[in-house]
């Protein structure tokens, strides 16, 4: 999670625009956050991202452009 947040906004957006890289990035960031911080909401978000990762990733592209962090992070 911290690695992704330390990247420039351009790198974050590029990682989220490429479909397969997008899904892998989402899974790694979401599950690492869950394992570090725990919580039922983070578990649900991690499971949803694992199943619907590409679609959530496209939402995150817009969200990163606006706020510089992932949606519901």
Short overview:
By secondary structure, the protein is mainly α. It is built from four helices and no strands. It starts with a helix and ends in a 6-residue tail after the last helix.
What distinguishing features does this structure have?
globular, mainly alpha, 73 residues, single chain
SSE string, helices as H and strands as E:
HHHH
> In what range is the share of β-strand residues?
under 5%
Q: How does the major sheet shape up? A: none
Poorly predicted sequence stretches spanning 5 or more consecutive residues: none
Calculate the mean pLDDT score and round it.
85
- Kindly give the count of domains: 1
Helix tally? 4
Cα Rg: 11 Å
The helical percent reads over 70%
Number of strands: 0
* Structural class by helix and strand composition: mainly alpha
Shape, principal axes of CA atoms:
globular
How far apart the termini lie comes to 9 Å
